[in-house]
Amino acid sequence: MEGSTTSPTPPGNQLVTEDLDQGVIIHFCPSFLSADEATALFEHIVAAVAWEQSEMTLPDGSKARLPRLQGWMSTENKKVSTLYQKSPPTVWTEPVLKVKSAIEAALGKRCTFDYVLINLYRDGEDSIGFHIDDEARGVNETYGPKNIVASLSLGETRTFVLRHSRKKRLQRRYALTPGSLIVMDGTTQEFWRHGVPKEPEVKGPRINLTFRVS
């Protein structure tokens, strides 16, 4: 598997698992939610979440605003030290809890997600660079393994790219359509980086919910 390749498209709402070697596991479903369900959840999230444009610290010590808006949901007074957000979480809402439970069930209830980070890409100029989720390692004794990160997409279709950390020509590209679900599992964070590049031709917003274990 050399160079850039596009992921296979599974039929219907089936969750298909790919083993990318070295214990790197990706689960993908292009239609985990129906079109109507995805639209309804998008509208709910836009209204329910307290959005902010967080700051990050650059290698030279300067500050820059993230090129996207963010929010998060969890239980009241939950604290997650690795988040950029300064605001407390929006308390879980019933529509989001319903989706969370469905994803946990699809993954065989191997973990219980205790928070969800939510990104709002306002248009194709918003993006996230290649990175690893350093916090997605180890096991939470209450909620289970942290390496399982489930991302549900709503709104405009954007391209999600996985790139090998050393062999940068080795890539996987996924078109994340509204209602699609992609899950990074196994040793993904050890060997692959991921990102959502700019796509100037995309004019509308996209939301992704990344369900996680703290």
TrEMBL record:
Q: Which domain of life is it from?
A: Eukaryota
Which Pfam family would be a valid example here? 2OG-FeII_Oxy_2
A molecular function GO annotation? dioxygenase activity
Gene3D superfamilies recorded: Alpha-ketoglutarate-dependent dioxygenase AlkB-like
What InterPro entries does this protein map onto?
AlkB-like, AlkB-like_sf, ALKBH3, Oxoglu/Fe-dep_dioxygenase_dom
Q: Show where the Fe2OG dioxygenase domain sits.
A: 112-214
Instruction: Give GO BP annotations, semicolon-separated.
Output: DNA alkylation repair
Full protein name:
2OGFe(II) oxygenase
